[in-house]
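Feature request disguised as a bug report, sorry. It would help if multi-protein outputs had a clear separator. Right now it looks like this:
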Amino acid sequence: MSAGVRVLVVDDQPNIVDMLATVLRFHGFAVTTAGTAAEALRLARAESPHLVVLDVLLPDGDGFTLCRELRAAGHQVGIVFLTARDAPRDKIAGLTYGGDDYVTKPFSVDELVARVRAVLRRIRPGSHPDTGAVLRYADLELDEETCQARRGGRLLTLSPTEFKLLRYLMLNPGRVLSRTQIREAVWSYDFGGASNVVDTYIGYLRRKLDPGPPLIVTQRGFGYALRAGG
């Protein structure tokens, strides 16, 4: 589990920022986002992230310069460059300026998460970012280590997909999640299955959570939220 690990995602393409934030939150990271170098520098100073996923080409500068500024200011944050620039000299430059890894676009989401975890293991060897933890919301408990979930102490019989769906909702309590966000996080970014798969599994999960007050709320026209009290 990555609870308590803060990641700053810096990219000027909103679709990439959205997708990365969704995936990293699904894996338990606390995510902040920025679209410019200036905003990223401000957030890095204010929030002291453990790791930055950093685009090289930004509207007001470049990631290499930002990386150098962070290192000069004494920030020991992990830095994973994310860029379309795949020439060997660019990779060497990124690592020379203080980057910890370099991922080129287009990229695999699973590979990026693996790279992020690998960098965190190197820079935070005693933190065990992948150790399991128990998520709690209202009378729900979800144990990531044993892959078990309970409501009011009652063990829920969930399929792996239902477990992943409940986990994603519990990582984002109260937040309205669109069907696209849920589909990308639970079924992967490039899922090509039925368009109503989210609605179907929300229905399955609601039935598994009965009896008890409803916890999964439909926000008509937007998506779903885990919200106690409706």
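(second protein starts here, but nothing in the output says so)
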Amino acid sequence: MSRAIRLAQAVPGARVLGWGSSQPDKIVTNDDLAQRVDTSDEWIRDRVGIQSRRIAEPETLLVEIAADAGSKAIADAGLSPTDVDTVIVASCTMPNPIPNAAAQVATRIGVQAPGAFDLNAACAGFSYGVGAAADLIRAGSAKHVLVIGAEKLSDWLDWDDRSTCIIFADGAGAAVLGPAGTPDEVGVGPLTWGSDGEAHEAIRIEPESNSIRQEGQQVFRWATTKIAPVALRAIELAGLTPADIDVFVPHQANLRIIEAVAKRLHKAGAREDMRIAKDIVHSGNTSSASIPLAIDHMRAAGEISRGDVLLLVGFGAGLSYAAQVVVTP
């Protein structure tokens, strides 16, 4: 005798309810780095566009930064921690694989007995997390999901390697997603994602030094040729056109990459007044944290307003990539 399995009631989709971010207090300038490695402020600005970055103290835990960003996002959403039933932490820099960050972060925030898991898609991690959260909500498996991108990349840097120590930094950004009551309220578009595992060694942890190594030119060529089509596909899947995008928020990997991809979006029909996130200038590359960090900083500066249509594009180690369109609350 067959028995039907009951499923949770689905909803039209998900929407973003709030944003939050957190960064260490310590600012490290290009001149500071030039005292240790053979570099200069001019060289760093020309190569990657960074002027300064935030670096956590050695004793600061990644989960502390993540919890701070998550708490702010919950408050911004007008919710309490007890309203959250699922916590996702995107990170590639936890000191150990066990225990995961999500359960620790949830406890620090005061979220009670949530579904909690980590995911590692490196710099594409936040977009992967938002996609997973939106699908959980749409399927009825979750109601309010906290998605955090958090990294403490300083723990994995060789501070004598100028090709990496000038780029990476620490921080966390977060979003709370909830259900859309009607189709008109849906605020998170379909996820377009993928990977290129044949190029997995382009960004890696070197076993001998236990530090990040990157083939910069290879990553630059890949990102400037492969990412714009991913962004355009996400717009298409959302039923929009490039002209509908108010704000372009790519992973903050390199200012030249950001500008190259934006140029291709403009050629495809994006408006000239489309705002472009350039948080890398003062935050550096914070991997999975970079997209929500940039959004929260742009909101604070009045560069993002309620109802703006944002195009999020993450890409990095793996090589992995993902993009989606969201409407900001």
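Even a blank line would do. Unrelated, but nice: The mean pLDDT is 96.
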